[in-house]
Specification:
By secondary structure, the chain is an alpha+beta fold. A hairpin with a 7-residue loop joins strand 5 and strand 6. Helices cover 15% and strands 20% of the residues. It has a 7-stranded antiparallel sheet with strand order 2-1-5-6-7-4-3.
Length: 305
């Protein structure tokens, strides 16, 4: 029986420049990856997604990752917390290094140091998350021109997801064809990840960060018919399980995923008439040969000014 020769490549972009990755493979002791489309106990199509996690246990006998070691090459990043959201890549080979496959792409969320004892050497645990973590707490707002283009172009959920993520700086977004036209869509100082999660769920689809992509950060939207398409159902390798493959098999169905009816909240919107939408509380005075920035906060989106 042929044996698998497992090898790995772990690299971290400590500097944050997006291009210079440092090889940390020799210090990796163990890696654990947890990935799911939705949180446990929730329906497959949920209003909020779940961020994939990767825990890296690293040897730290030379205190390379210690935040209080000024002699470390990484001191500038570990001492001041500069490691936060630095990119991480983990590739794995099962054929002795002939072929490597991306198993995780994401960012560092935190580092925990385990000091050495008389029985165990010092280690650190690096907590990593997929790229949703990087954009989750980002707050973006839709430009007026973009909102109008979405409306006049009869944008679907796929178009809107691409626009929202582009506003946040993520351009590597792969989407299935949209199935529903959403006339009005905008963000007002909101999280693009949370908005895309909610929009995808409302349309019966899934939106998530692709941890296996070698072109990061990468995001994917699968529409409601993705798994029902013939190409998806018939293409690719098929796996058949027999008694020779397992000692026991238990099939479990979650009743929470069975529905008798679906309720959708809908609010009608249309372009209104010309009106005064904002007035200053006092007279605005602009100094001679000067300029003044005036911020007008609207209660509802404006279609044209």
């Amino acid at each position: 029986m042929a044996s698998r020769q497992v090898r790995w490549q772990l690299s971290v972009n400590w500097s944050g420049d997006g291009t210079t990755f440092v090889d940390e493979s020799s210090n990796l002791i163990a890696a654990t990856i947890n990935c799911s489309v939705n949180a446990p106990g929730t329906p497959t199509i949920a209003g909020s997604g779940i961020i994939a996690q990767c825990t890296l246990v690293m040897a730290n006998t030379d205190r390379r990752y210690s935040s209080n070691n000024p002699d470390s090459d990484l001191y500038a990043y570990t001492n001041y917390g500069e490691y936060h959201h630095r990119a991480v890549r983990l590739n794995v080979s099962v054929d002795g290094g002939s072929n490597y496959y991306r198993r995780f792409s994401g960012v560092i969320a935190g580092i925990t140091e385990i000091t050495p004892t008389t029985q165990e050497a010092g280690t650190v645990s690096i907590d990593c998350r997929d790229y949703s973590e990087k954009y989750l707490n980002t707050r973006t707002s839709t430009q007026l021109g973009d909102m109008v283009l979405l409306y006049t172009g009869s944008a679907t959920e796929s178009d809107i997801i691409e626009q929202f993520m582009s506003d946040a700086g993520a351009i590597n977004v792969t989407t299935d064809p949209g199935m529903f036209v959403v006339p009005f869509a905008w963000m007002d100082d909101e999280s693009p990840i949370e908005e895309c999660w909610s929009l995808a769920a409302a349309c019966g689809g899934w939106f998530y960060a692709d941890i296996w992509s070698t072109t990061e950060p990468a995001f994917v939207y699968k529409n409601a018919s993705h798994w029902a398409k013939q190409t998806i159902s018939t293409s690719g390798p098929d796996n058949e399980f027999t008694r020779a493959d397992h000692q026991g098999l238990q099939v479990k169905y979650d009743h929470a995923e069975l529905f008798k009816e679906v309720t959708v909240e809908w609010s009608a919107r249309q372009v209104g008439s010309v009106d005064t939408i904002w007035e200053p509380d006092s007279t605005i005075v602009v100094p001679a040969d000067g300029e003044k920035t005036v911020t007008a906060t609207f209660r509802t989106p404006v279609y044209e000014i």
